[in-house]
Fold:
Amino acid sequence: MPTTYAIPNGRTVFDATLWTGDGATSPRSITNTVGFKPDLVWSKDRTSAYNHQLFDSVRGTGSSKNLMSNSTDAEGVNASSFGYLSAFNSNGFALTKGSDPGNEYLWVGKTSDNYVAWQWQAGGTAVSNTSGTITSSVSANTTAGFSIVSYTGNGATTQTVGHGIGVAPQMVIVKERADNGYNWPVYHISLSSGYAVFLNTTGAQDNSTVYWGSVPTTTVFGVNYSGALTNQSGKAYIAYCWAPVAGYSAFGSYTGNGSADGPFIYTGFRPRFIMIKDANNSAGPWVMYDTSRSPYNQMVNVFRANTSDAEGVYSASDGYNIDALSNGFKVYSTWNGINNSGDTTIYMAFAENPFKYANAR
Structure:
């Protein structure tokens, strides 16, 4: 275990911020805990069944730039009507009403609805990256192991795209931006070589190697021509790339045991955010937890990244529940979505504090 950490306080580069809609103030500024300028904001209405909303600094702000993790829609669908992120501020972000009378603020600030935004800091203004066979535009935070990558596909097989992190990413999420009907392929270090799962579905890993072309390296990740999902000629793509940072982020898997006394997963830090997906279960959702919505164990406030469902709030007996501990998390569930016996379940986790500085919950 390291004695020093590149990020002793995870909230300086990642946060889960809560607010309640007022249906009036526009633009409305939302401030994160420590006060950093985010580059990726992923928000969700907790109270109502509205779509997830993703905005990033590389594609830019405004009503034409939202993406939805639960949808195959292209960017910019309905945000002009229902509200959108209009600025990345030095200590958070700003939200602006849409134009649909009576529904102007549904997605970002409906009166009395509760909201959450998960925010990551990349590297600010994007720069050109020519490390791959496809030139990319990259905003990279090498300290936090995170980059946002924009590129245009060339339609060829086994191509590469520069990511700018400096170490090999262990999770990459890609979305084709311009057209409706295309899934969100996800590369994860714990999937079988070259395979993918899709962020917008419950499906098990797709046992095909057509998505990535090659495994990520310290400079590039691979893409392939695969029905427009990662490299169709002339199509614009966005990719979110993460690499592990000791004491701050972790990407891995565990094997379910089907017991209410489920696996303990060591991360080396107290998690602030955890997302879990059973890679072998064709009905396994992407389950999202954070300690802003669930400040005490067990963590009972649950989202699914692949649906527009409102937040589920469950009792300890409902089977969704986990504990966030000072050095990882513990599964207490027989539910096959997060603890199916023998299944490989992948996760991504980000820290409140490294274990050295963490307090018990």
